[in-house]
């Protein structure tokens, strides 16, 4: 299939990715825009891993107060340059992640941030539940692992389904922004306040 300029422009408008990357994705996916978007998202993940070591000393701190003033979030997201930190895409990302945190109440940004006592307690509870289910001994560890995976997807911000698009995780949302900006972006820290807690 012929990859014309209008296809490249449409893909670029929808993803914010560079022209050459759009051309490559369209060639790889034989002109199918939706497949090309998925291709770029997957590529964004690998690009994000390559950028992981680069310093992030710029960024934004955003505050979000949920309607009614009963829940509030302070969030710091870092990037490499002040140019990226001032873009509409970056600002929108930080605001949306702050709203996500208000709605989803994660325990930590990633698995490393979850206190070890909490992990041990959860694993112990799941092991007890698995034993009481009467399933064969061989299956018990898989049951516990499956329940721990579900726990991580609820407790870790980056593993949670993104509230505005549950088909992707917050990590996927972050990877899309990194692919778009070409920079390493890091959700550094957050605090969530809830009245009465």
Mean pLDDT: 88
| CA(first)-CA(last) distance | 59 Å
Helix % is 55-70%
- Major pleated sheet: 3 strands, antiparallel
Domains counted in the coordinates: how many? 3
Write the CATH fold name of the largest domain. Answer: Tetrahydropterin Synthase, Chain A
The shape, in one word, is globular
Tell me which CATH architecture of the largest domain applies here: 2-Layer Sandwich
User: What structural class do the secondary elements suggest?
Assistant: alpha+beta
Gist of the model:
This protein has helices spanning 5-15, 19-28, 33-51, 82-85, 88-104, 116-132, 137-155, 170-181; strands at 58-65, 71-79, 161-162, 165-169, 186-194. The protein has 197 residues and is an alpha+beta fold. It is globular, with a radius of gyration of 20 Å.
What does this structure look like?
This protein has three domains: 5-51, Orthogonal Bundle (Helicase, Ruva Protein, domain 3); 58-109 and 156-194, Tetrahydropterin Synthase, Chain A (2-Layer Sandwich); 115-154, GTP Cyclohydrolase I, Chain A, domain 1 (Orthogonal Bundle), CATH 1.10.286. With 197 residues, the protein is α+β, with helices and mostly antiparallel strands. The relative contact order is 0.16. It has eight helices and five strands. A three-stranded antiparallel beta sheet has the order 1-2-5.
Explain the layout of strands and helices.
Elements: H1 5-15, H2 19-28, H3 33-51, E1 58-65, E2 71-79, H4 82-85, H5 88-104, H6 116-132, H7 137-155, E3 161-162, E4 165-169, H8 170-181, E5 186-194
Antiparallel strand pairs: 1-2, 2-5, 3-4
Helix pairs in contact: 1-2, 1-3, 2-3, 3-8, 5-8, 6-7
């Amino acid at each position: 299939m012929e990859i014309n300029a209008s296809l490249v422009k449409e893909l670029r408008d929808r993803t914010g990715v560079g022209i050459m990357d759009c051309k490559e994705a369209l060639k790889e996916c034989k002109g199918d825009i939706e497949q090309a978007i998925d291709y770029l998202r997957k590529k964004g993940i690998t690009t994000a891993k390559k950028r992981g070591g680069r310093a992030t000393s710029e960024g934004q701190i955003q505050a979000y107060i949920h309607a009614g003033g009963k829940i509030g979030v302070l969030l710091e997201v870092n990037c490499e340059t002040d140019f990226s930190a001032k873009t509409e895409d970056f600002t929108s990302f930080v605001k949306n992640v702050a709203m996500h945190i208000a709605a989803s109440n994660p325990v930590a940004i990633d698995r490393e941030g979850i206190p070890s006592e909490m992990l041990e307690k959860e694993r112990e509870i799941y092991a007890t539940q698995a034993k009481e289910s009467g399933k064969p001994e061989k299956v018990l560890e898989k049951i516990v692992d499956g329940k721990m995976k579900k726990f991580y997807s609820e407790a870790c911000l980056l593993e949670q389904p993104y509230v505005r698009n549950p088909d992707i995780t917050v990590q996927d949302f972050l990877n899309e922004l990194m692919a778009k900006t070409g920079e390493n972006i890091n959700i550094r820290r957050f605090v969530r306040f809830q009245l009465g807690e």
